[in-house]
Structure formats: C-alpha cells, structure tokens
Amino acid sequence: MRFLFTQVDCISSIHNRSLLFQQGVLMGIKLVQRTANIVHRLAHKITVRQEIRRQVSLQPDKRAIGNVLISYVVEPFLLKSGEPIPNSHTHFWECHQMAQTFLDMGYCVDVIQYNNDIFLPQKEYAFFIETRWNLQRCAPLLNKDCIKIFHADTAHILFHNAAEANRLLALQQRRGITLSPRRFEPPNKALEHADCATVLGNEFTMSTLKYAKKPLYHVPISTQVLYPWVEEKDFDVCRNHFLWFGSGGLVHKGLDLVLEAFSQMPDCHLTICGPISKEEDFTEAYYKELYLTSNINTIGWIDVNSQKFRNILNSCVGIVYPSCSEGGGGSVINCMHAGLVPIVSYEASVNVEKDYGVILNDNSIEEIKREVQKISQLSAEKLKQMARKAWEFARENHTKEKFAENYRNTIEKILINHSKKNEVLIYV
Fold it and tell me: Is the dihedral of CA 95, 306, 229, 392 positive or negative?
C-alpha cells in the first residue's frame, strides 16, 4: 500500500510539474506577445511622428527672390519619378500647384505637413501659407514683413464641428442610437494670425470666416478628373438612378439622411461610393439599408479615374449630397464634371442654379424624397439639358487650369495689396 501511495504521489507530482511548465510556457508566450505589441505600437508612433515632421525644400529654376513656407501636405513632393499625384483628394494636386506657383515666381519653397508639431522657422519667409495649426505657433518668430495667408479648405472648424454634432444629435433622436463623430478637429487660430485668406468654397464657406474681418480671396476648388460629355447617355433609363459619393464622416456628409430617404422610395435606385467599411458603428446602424435593401447598392471606396466609376456615373442622373459643412464640395464638383445633376445642401459649398440642380432648404428626409422624385419625373430632354449645364459649369469654373490661373492671380493681388498697405503705414 505504501508503495502504491508513493507511486500515485510521484505521478501527481509529475503532472503538477507538467502543468506548471505549461503555464510557464503560456505566460512566456503572452509576455513575448505583449512585448511585441508594445514594440509595434511604439514603432508605429515613431513612424507617424517621423511622417508628420517631414520637410521638403524646393528650388526655382532661376535666381531666388525669397522664401515661401507652405503648411499643408508633403505627400505629392515625395513621389518617385513618373509616379502620378494621388487623385483620392484634390489637396494633393492643389498643394503641388501652390508650390509650383511660387517656384515660377522665383521663390524657394519649403513644404511641411499641416500637423507638424515641432517646426520652427529658421529663415525669413516672404509668404507663410497655413491650413491648420503651425502659423499660430510660428507667428511670433516670423519676420514682420512676412505675408501670412490662411488657406481655407474647410468651413471654420467651430462651425464644422458644431454642424456634425447637430447631425449626430438629430440621428440619435430619430433612431435611438449614438454614433461617434468622425470629422471633429481641434479649432485653430490660423485666420486670427493671418493677414488674409484664400478660400476654396463659395459664399457659405466664406460666411463662416467673416468674423475675423480679414480679406477673403475666392480660389475655386479644382477636380481630380475631367470626364468627356457622353452624348449617347440614355436619360430615360437612368432617370431613377442616383449616386451618393463622399469621403469619411458619413453622417457629416448626410449619408444617413439619404439612406433613410431612398429606403422609402423603392422605385428610385441609389448607388453609394465611399469608405463605408471604415465606420463600423455607422455600418452596424444602417446595415439593413446598406446591404439588405433592393434599391440600394453599396460599392464602397472607389478610384474616381477607374472605368468602374465612370460606368456608375454614366448610369446615374444625379448626385444627392446633403452635407452639413464643406470647404468646396469636391465630390459634388467631381460628379458635375460627369454631367450629374446636383441635389445638395447649401452647406455643400457648391454654386448651383435652378436650371441645372437643386439646393435643399432644410435637408430633411421628406425634402430629399420630394426633390429626388421631382428630378426623376422630368422629361429625358429636360434632364439632358440640366446635365449639360452642370457639366459646362464644372468645366468653366473647376479645373486644374482654372485653379492654377486663379491662385497665381490671387497671390499677385495679395502681394500688391500688401505693398500698398505697407506704403500707407510708412507714410503715416
């Protein structure tokens, strides 16, 4: 018996040691995984920090007459030879063109990322172009004759944030759910520290900036792609087909309202192009409308220069875009270049006349339904006329060539006005 107990005790002891060994191995694996995760997060933070602190310096082809700093986006200046500028947003090409404008005028140009958190000026600048936060930090260190320009590519951030908050609150009251804000930004004081501003958007965007009583210069937003007019487009076939096309901030851009409207209009078809999958709470809240409603087709993010997107544009009669705040309405302009009739909010910041589109009054679901149905019931000939005028308006006002021309003229005008202002100050 004593031998049996000893044998059992021995087996039990071996088993316990085996368990302890397995637990030790598991703890070791977890420790390694935890350490690897920490290292990965730190590496990611270091990479992000390095990316936002990048600086590019450009030289003109002729003798330099001064220096310019642009605080915007550096990505278009880091491309390999022959690599195209990204067309996912207009600001990539526009920033590149802004730099080229100053290079053509004979200035050396430094470009930093808008959210660079350590840059301090080490030289005198003739111009400081700002889009967010760097100017308010650097202003005390700039030479007194530096011309400081706020380049407004959004409505004022306080308005922008409040408008999204109001949309989220309205959604909460309608659907009984709370979604996260996606477009909130910390307010900046770039305009307060600037001498003037260039503004991509129309009178709406300008109205949110007038409080500072600074000169505002309108430089209409460009577009990534020019689409040819499609003469053979069949408006009898596409009259009931509409598009929602936008970037992140789906509630901000009014997709919730558009989905609720079209889910009540089974005879009207909606195609959705945008980064839907990136906003999981929105996708969960509107899963039925997005994926289980027969007249709604959710595509997701798409390349505006792809044949797939061109096919979608050619199959639709209009774009429905009740955004709560924009700095130029680039997605609407893009679609107008393809001859889509705009049904948009005033806050979409796109100039729309009655002969080629609709400005919504209150952006309610009922109003969206009413205006969509009105458009779908027009004759094919009338729809073609409206589409042609929308296409012509976009071609006349929102192209890369127009942006380059307007930006150059605006900078020259600002330079003249600043010189006159200094002459008056010297005289006084």
Answer: negative
What's 340's DSSP letter? P
What string of pLDDT tens digits covers the 428 residues of the chain? 444 445 556 566 666 666 666 776 777 777 777 766 666 666 555 565 667 889 999 999 999 999 999 999 999 999 998 899 999 899 999 999 999 999 999 999 999 999 999 999 999 999 999 999 999 999 999 999 999 999 999 999 999 999 999 999 999 999 999 999 999 999 999 999 999 999 999 999 999 999 999 999 999 999 999 999 999 999 999 999 999 999 999 999 999 999 999 999 999 999 999 999 999 999 999 999 999 999 999 999 999 999 999 999 999 999 999 999 999 999 999 999 999 999 999 999 999 999 999 999 999 999 999 999 999 999 999 999 999 999 999 999 999 999 999 999 999 999 999 887 765 444 33
- The H helix count followed by the E strand count for the chain is 15, 13
339/284 Cα distance (integer angstroms): 33
CA distance 75 to 309: 24
CB-based contact 196:216 (threshold 8 Å): yes
Estimate to the nearest angstrom the gap between the alpha carbon of 236 and the chain centroid. 33
**Neighbouring residues of 390: CB distance < 8 A, sequence distance ≥ 6:** 336, 339, 340, 341, 342, 356, 357
pTM for the model stands at 0.87
Tell me the C-alpha distance between 335 and 341, whole Å.
Answer: 8
> Of all helices (H) and strands (E), which one includes residue 386?
helix 380-397
Reading the block at residue 227, the tokens are 């689409």
Whole-number CA gyration radius for the chain: 28
Q: Element (H or E) spanning 69, and its range?
A: strand 66-72
CA distance 134 to 352: 34
